[in-house]
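call fold(seq) -> tokens
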Amino acid sequence: MVQHDKEATIKQLTPPDFSLEAEVIRSSFVTVAYDLGLTEQNCPKFVGFITTAERLQTQHGWGWLIYGLYVDDLLVGYVSVSNVGEGVFEIHNLSVLPEYRHRGYGKLLLDFCVARIVELGGNKVAISITEENTVLRDWYLTYGFIHTGTKKFDHLPFTVGYMELMV
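ret:
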């Protein structure tokens, strides 16, 4: 367990935590879906619609490191990290419940992930985002990420943006 300040703690999660964590992910991403006009009908594979405890269990089985952010013992944030090889690690679905945003918790999660990736021998952090979410894209750019490209997938009604950070 890592203590970041007197009220926020990040810890690695295990399968018993996954049901609650899936709920946090869905609740966090619903605002993005609303802002971008995404529904289960026009974007059934959006993370806010498909995340379940079983999906997190599968990702855990792939070796993903899954972390939760707790504030006063309440789970309010999520992030996972995967090793994609050759010193590159990917951060997945960093999210904070809407009522806990704009308090620095997202940055705490990102700082934690970057430090953990360096500990694991990584030299590059990769992320993919919803490109149309310009607030999020700008947040990562301000952190130091570099925009490396975009891709349009037939099954998604938005463009996927790719970003990297050398560490």
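Confidence is low (pLDDT under 50) at residues 1-5.
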